Amino acid sequence: MVTGANRGIGLGLVKEFIKNKEIRHVIATARDPDNASKLKDIGDSRLRIVKLDVTCDDSIQNAYKEVEKIVGDKGLTVLLNNAGAFVKYSTKWGHNRADIIKNFNINTASVAVITQVFLPLLRKAAEHGNSDEFSLDRSAIINISSGLGSIANNTTGSGEMGTLAYRISKSALNSLMKTIAVDLEPEHILVASFCPGWVQTDMGGPNAHLTIDQSVTQLLKSFSQLNKNHHGGYFNKELEPIPY
């Protein structure tokens, strides 16, 4: 299941997952499925588009019920938290609490709630796994984070783009997922976070270094290599560790 899948990296990830004929269901969420034309154009019977507003708890619960019907007793093998927002904020500009909160609400709080709500389905998948090993084939929570979430690597501050609120929301996401990784380690549910690189999306802009295809192709290669050694980690798209 990929959140925020109607465009950008989320859409690209869905297209990559669909290429794997062994996958029974690819669940793509969008706030407005009726207008998710690019998802509909994929035209694969294994693709299920589910309505999900990540900021609305009722919507999250409704999405859970719909996904539960799709996956049944086998559970949800992968929860890929991709939905995100970048609302500009800088110490050089006037203060605006709402802009800070919007970044945290979508990039951190929503991920926390979605992960908790969908845990029962991830646990079902783990119980039905053929192996006890940490892997994408058993049960996994994958998060699209950002290199800007690294506190250790922060040398540019808010920058010209006004990344302050986005930075701290992604740092919080990394902390959230490290904590969840510790909590879920006894259940062997894999948790890992990734920076997809600077990608040509609505958020990344046309001058970004990577196309969506370049980013997601490499991400899928890295996802397939995940094991216990990567549990709770924070990586770039090549599976190289990023310092927290």
From TrEMBL:
GO terms for molecular function: oxidoreductase activity. InterPro entries: Fungal_SecMetab_SDRs (IPR051468), NAD(P)-bd_dom_sf (IPR036291), SDR_fam (IPR002347). It comes from the Eukaryota. GO terms for cellular component: cytoplasm. Belongs to the short-chain dehydrogenases/reductases (SDR) family. This is Oxidoreductase, short chain dehydrogenase/reductase family protein. The lineage of its organism: Eukaryota, Metazoa, Ecdysozoa, Nematoda, Chromadorea.
